[in-house]
Design a protein that fits this description.
This protein is of the alpha+beta class and 115 residues long. The chain is built from 4 helices and 4 strands. The two termini are 15 Å apart.
């Protein structure tokens, strides 16, 4: 199956394809896209939270914090050894990608998905 996209829409399309695994709500997905676009390495910094809250038309950053907590609970973002939030590797598309293939591996009646 081919999915037509553009450089501008690629991140959203990539995360939408993964969302069957990630199980993000539409607003969680919106916030994740905005966070990654703001800073593809450090997740949910205070500056990024202000930017994303404004972009999502929230009255305050505290509203956005509910979505940040959900991203933590779903292991989309995790603290590194220095206490800085980083993105789970699966939500960051590989650099310089022009094609994406999903591979499903059946093992002992369990299905694992890989990229």
């Amino acid at each position: 199956m081919n999915v037509q996209t553009s450089k501008k829409k690629f991140l959203r399309n990539y995360l939408e394809l993964l969302n069957g695994i990630l199980r993000l709500t539409p607003r969680e997905l919106d916030s994740l896209v905005l966070f990654i676009q703001y800073d593809p390495e450090v997740a949910c910094s205070m500056q990024a939270r202000k930017h994303v809250a404004e972009a999502m038309n929230f009255k305050s950053v505290s509203v956005l914090n509910n979505y940040v907590k959900s991203l933590k609970d779903k292991q989309i973002i995790q603290k590194d050894s220095n206490g800085v939030y980083r993105y789970n590797g699966i939500v960051k598309p590989p650099a310089h990608i022009d094609q994406l293939t999903f591979k499903f591996v059946f093992s002992d009646a369990q299905v694992r998905a890989g990229i």
